[in-house]
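anyone seen this seq b4? input:
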Amino acid sequence: MIANHAEIYPKRVAVILYRPEQDADTLLADFTQDLARQGVRVGGIVQRNFKGANGMKTMLARDVATGREIPSCQPLGSGAISCKLDANGLADAAVVASRAIKRHVDLLVINKFSKQEASGSSPPSPKKCHAAWRTFTGNVGTTLLCGRQVVKEWWRDIAQRLPRIRAHSIPSAAIYRSSDPTA
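predicted toks r here
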């Protein structure tokens, strides 16, 4: 949970709400990559989902600053019924986010907020977790629809304030994704 909500300028924290048919992961990955090319100091993680050679779905967390990929799923067999999340991978992703904060990035991306994050079990989203998100942030922040132009406009507002923001706090802004509970 965020320690002192009074210190946060609400518009600097954003959550992207998406529906299952929307690809918030690619939106965040492409957006942060474009910002990095423009010299914006980005940090944090984005999630990448894909099917492996064996046809099994897997997830990776990618460090947006370095491109390093962190496995976030355990390679369980097809008949496994236990949780496939890899606790070590989740912890590694949390370290990436913590380091980004310490580096005073302009934009911190924490690609997912869901059950694990709401319970405090991993770094901080599907819209179905929006109420938990609001609790986690103390109802601070901006809710964005899943669209490149919407995210660009939010960032444009933040970027205009960067010189003043950099002088007073870190990180400058943070963005998350959360799925739509009505989907």
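The chain has a mean pLDDT of 76. The two ends are 26 Å apart (CA to CA). kinda curious what u guys think
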